[in-house]
Amino acid sequence: PHLSIINLKSQNIVSVGNLPRYTNMIKISPNAKMLAIIVYHPAQQLVLEPHTQNGYNQLFVAKFSDDHTKLVGIRALTPKHMQVGGDDFSWTPDSQSLIFIAEPFSGPGLTYQGRLSQINVHRKNIKQFFRKSNYFNYPQISHDGKHLAYLSNQAIPAGKPYNFDYFLAHHMIQACVLN
């Protein structure tokens, strides 16, 4: 895919360049100096069972040149053995970290559970908000950095997780906010 940027003030379009093959999501940092990229890596070998033919997603970051005409130094943030959820992710307001869903990748196959995680884009250290995996989706941090919202099948404030088959059949997703 090719990346272009529109300067909303001048209405000029800048052709920045090509992104890695299989890029499936991008987000500009709040300070507009970096671009976060989720790249899908297809499975490397032919597998006969359809549920094991999946590859994995990896999170990358790149800096923009000062004039926003090119990306400088695309680099991986997450290791190859960590599956990054492709539903959504969020920059922190200070442009220092990304909030995303991650789970160690254990080989071919589709996983629905993940851990709500934060990674510092400079030091690449990963913080996980909960000890256990859950069905987390769409993490979004508030503009002031004080609240993190996400969707989950976990009862709030406490309780047992819903049965996943029931969850899929009835779309029982609850919105949650961490203070």
Descriptive notes:
Helices cover 4% and strands 43% of the residues. The chain has 179 residues and is mainly beta. Strands 7, 8, 9, 10 and 11 form a five-stranded antiparallel sheet that branches. The protein has a four-stranded antiparallel sheet with strand order 3-4-5-6, with no helix packed on it. It has a three-stranded antiparallel sheet with strand order 12-13-14, with no helix packed on it. β8 and β9 form a beta hairpin. It is globular. The model is unreliable at 48-52 and 159-176 (pLDDT under 50).
Q: What's the helix and strand layout?
A:
Layout: E1 2-6, E2 13-18, E3 23-28, E4 34-41, E5 56-64, E6 71-76, E7 82-84, E8 90-91, E9 97-104, E10 115-120, E11 126-128, E12 137-141, E13 148-152, H1 164-170, E14 174-178
Antiparallel strand pairs: 1-2, 3-4, 4-5, 5-6, 7-9, 8-9, 9-10, 10-11, 12-13, 13-14
Search tags:
179 residues; mainly beta; five-stranded antiparallel sheet; four-stranded antiparallel sheet; 1 helix; 43% strand; globular
Helix content: under 10%
> How many helices does DSSP assign?
1
Instruction: Give the CA-based shape.
Output: globular
Number of beta-strand segments: 14
- How much β-strand is present in the residues? 35-45%
Low-confidence stretches: 48-52, 159-176
Gyration radius, rounded: 18 Å
End-to-end Cα distance: 37 Å
